[in-house]
Amino acid sequence: MLSVTRKHANRPTQILVRTLFSPPTRGRQSLVILGSGWGGYEVLRGVDKKNWNVTIISPNTYFNFTPLLASAAVGTLEFRCTVEPVRRYTPKVSYYQAWCDNIGNANLQIYHHFKHKTLTCVAATPPVSFGSSPPATPQPFSIKYDKLVIAVGAYRQTFGIPGVKEHAHFLKDVKDARKIRTRILECLEQANQPDMTDAERRKLLNFCVVGGGPTGVEFAAELHDLLHTDIAQHHPELAKMARINLYDVADSILGTFDRSLVRYTENTLRRDGINLHLRHHVEKVENGKLFIKEVGEVPFGLLVWSTGLAPNPLISAITELKKRDTTSRVLTDAYLNALNVDGTPNPDVWAIGDAASIESDPLPATAQVANQKAKYVTKTLNKLANFSHSHEDDEQSKNAHVDEPFQFRNRGSLAYIGGWRAIYDRSKAAGDGENTFMNKESGRVAWLLWRSAYFTQTLSWRNKILVPTYWFLNWIFGRDLTRF
């Protein structure tokens, strides 16, 4: 069976696990989904629950609509607008707030001959301790499955730079957005104290962003909007002292965008007073201090870190599947089946999202790619279930899949750059031979595309109502500056 080995007292100890059996559902196979991000949540939404006994395992009880996190971090939107609850689909679907620690110590291929496979998980919430008893240790449990979708995503890349995890803020989850919003308001209220000197205020109101990708640029733009609207109205002197600095090791920001759009964005940000520091290298981070190789010590009140992706610990622990050397992402074939270490596709395991990459055609780790892969896998699973019901004794049913391999359709890239302006780039799609109505756009037209795209992509009717409502309310009344 698949098991988890943990270390105690510097020696490995085998932990017994309890097995959770799926409810007895005649004629339905067990599908387990790992992760509730752009990949896992889309599979959860679209898979036929009547034909699959579905279990989803994720440390989060929600799906993050990541493009709106920067807006939530500065109060343009409220946090509930950026999440969709996983439990919307229970009790038809079994959900456990947990993470998968490891997928076995034996080759996954041996399980193809068995009816059920097993993976081992650990609860993400700490167990309750009663009275004076010592804190309980989360006990692993195992889940049986017939088919598995790995969509665990990735972590933020820190490149091993000392102090980043301890003193920087990330922007990958709604909890990160809450911490950033709290910290911004803390800096403003502390700087407003009468015993602060102007030099101390400038240090506290120096906001630093490391990483010139879409997330870093959008957060810097949203923060600029906050400082030059609501903060300028309520704290005019503090707004004049505030500075936004964006650092990146590359020669330009937004490396995946068209060069003309990059130049437009850089000129726009500089005109707005956002300082771009390109070809700068961070050496270490201390409490309130950023050490840059080219300029030395830089004090800050808030540091937001957005420099790419690092492999999920689960993916790092898997030894039975083939992975790409440069990124450690699980390799798949064109049908998104994970590849075993010998290069053969595993018909019972799919890998999608930031945790996976197609061997023959690597695609960027973006929400758009993860979402399209999830829809493809959903279509495969639904066809497989229908085929199995109509061919119960047919060996071909074991390997049924969608006839055509996965093909990514580039819908274009969007980025907000502040002041009701954005950029839109679909030039690479046009370069692949697609007919596109609009390849590149910038300014107010792109901003309308940006808002309309994210409004239409929000998944529930609840958020389709909440998002434009908060946009309208904050336009009329301004952002809420209370801290609680």
TrEMBL record:
A GO molecular function held by the record: NADH dehydrogenase (quinone) (non-electrogenic) activity
Entry keyword Cytoplasm: no
One Pfam assignment: NDH2_C
Taxonomy, superkingdom: Eukaryota
Top class in the EC scheme: oxidoreductase
Catalytic reaction(s) noted: a quinone + NADH + H(+) = a quinol + NAD(+); a ubiquinone + NADH + H(+) = a ubiquinol + NAD(+)
Signal peptide positions (record): none
EC number(s) recorded for this UniProt protein: 1.6.5.9
CC terms in the record's Gene Ontology section: mitochondrion
Annotated ranges, domain External alternative NADH-ubiquinone oxidoreductase-like C-terminal: 411-480
Domain (FAD/NAD(P)-binding) ranges: 30-374
Alphabetized InterPro entries for the sequence: FAD/NAD-bd_sf, FAD/NAD-binding_dom, NDH-2, NDH2-like_C
Keyword Flavoprotein: yes
Keywords associated with the record: FAD, Flavoprotein, NAD, Oxidoreductase, Transit peptide
Family: Belongs to the NADH dehydrogenase family.
Protein name: NADH:ubiquinone reductase (non-electrogenic)
Species whose genome carries this gene: Guyanagaster necrorhizus
